[in-house]
Every structure is written in structure tokens, then in C-alpha cells.
Design goal:
With 273 residues, the protein is α/β, with parallel strands linked by helices. It is built from nine helices and ten strands. It has helices at 9-17, 36-42, 79-91, 99-105, 114-122, 145-148, 164-173, 188-197, 209-217; strands spanning 2-5, 54-62, 94-98, 130-134, 155-158, 176-179, 202-207, 223-229, 252-260, 263-270. It has a ten-stranded mixed sheet, sandwiched between helices. The radius of gyration is 19 Å and the shape is globular. The model is unreliable at 17-27 (pLDDT under 50).
Amino acid sequence: MRRLFPVTYETADHLGREGTGEAPAAAEPRDGAWSLDALADAYAYPPQAAEAPWLRANMVSTLDGAAQHDGRSQPISNDTDMRIFGTLRGLADVVVVGAQTVRQEGYRPARAREAFAARRAAAGQGAAPSIAVISASLDLDFTLPLFTEPLVPTYVITGSGAPADRIGAARGSGAEVLLAGEGAAVEADRAVAALAERGHRRLLTEGGPRMLGQFVAGGVLDELCLTVSPMLTAGDAQRIAGGSVLRVPERFELVSLLEEDGFLFTRYGRRRH
């Protein structure tokens, strides 16, 4: 894997020597040699996340804009994308997902990983990130290990008007229920605030498209880590974000760009004025 942006002396030297047969002068990891520590450094949360919630999204898209194939993201991913996926989880306080994604992808509790133990301890984080599931209807199977066997608490975020029996079922499974909206709907800013109140400021959302669209429309997304997969699928698969259209498109800026085997691993941050 190689870094294309930001361009450093090492990157520029490597690009200038490609095809010459000369060894690169840089010590920057590349060509599949990126360790988990190197990836963790590359994707570290900004200093602002120590004081206020920082919500980043991690998504994958094909060249023709599909976020899934046959209803799942795995077929358009690759091993490096999954390593970055694991790294982003290893850095987060909590992973926020939608109910549909839980059902489709078969979510399980996040596990503790020795590779991130020291880094998490130094940051005052638990052994593993919590999972927070956003659902208006609470149409979820609360007997799943995600709710009954997590290493750290699983959160269920819903509105105050959600069915009382389903709220009871969620609490009965051991999940912590957070109310973040009037009626059954969840308000994006209140969901972020509710997690921050429990000390979770490094937030990661992995999908799905409808929920990401709600975070975008709510103006609470700070960062997008998007893998561009060199594949074409056609069909009518969803984009990475759906739902309401912003009246004025919001501008993000490129923070970093990595490449391997035609896959582009991009990181965009909200443009600050």
C-alpha cells in the first residue's frame, strides 16, 4: 500500500523512483507492509475528539456508486479494506449502526484486540468499543449475542415514542436504551449527544446508507473514511447515504489518500471555516 496524499518528501521520492529500479529512500510503510500500528497512526482521531464528540463514517463504494452487492458490503471489499475496518473499530469508543445493517450483516459484539490494548488504555477507553444500534421500531432479535453477551454494554438508541414492550425487551436483554427523539424517530444530533454524555466522544458509524444519510442531513458528520472499490456492479443498489437531500451540499476536504491494488482508501474531513 502506498500513500498518495498528503504528499511528503518520502511519498514524492517514492513516486519519482517508480519504474527506475532504484530502491525508495523512505521508511514509510508500503507494498503491504503497513502494520496495525501504522494504520492506527494514519487514522488517529484528531485532538478535538478529546473534548467534543467526533463522528466518523466508514463506508465502501464501487466505481458506479453501489454501497452493497446482493445486500452486503463484503463482496465489494478486500483484505486491506477489512484491516482498515478493524483499525477504525480499534480506535473508536462506540460503533453506531442501523437496525437494518445489524440484521443484514449479522452483527456480533466487538471483541478486545491485543494489538490495540495499550493504545486504548492510554486513551482511557474500554477493552473494546461498544455497539450502538439505532432503531425506531426496535424490530430486533434481542436474544442475539450482540445484546446478551457483549464485552462492554450494547446501546439501543430510539425515540421516546417507541413501543413500550420493545423497549422492555431491549432492557431485558441487558442493553442500555437511550431515548434521542420525540415520537419513534431518532434525531441525529441527540443520538450523538446521548453517547457523548456517557463519555463516548470517538464515534464511528459503519452504516447503513439510510442512517448515514440521517447523520449527513443532521449536520453531525465530521469525517468520512470511504473505500473506493475498483468494481462495477450495475443494478439498483443503494449509495453510501440516502434519505433527505441537503438544501446546499456540504463541502468536505481530503485529509489522506492511500492506494493498493486499485482500491483507494480516502479520508475526508468537514471543511472548517
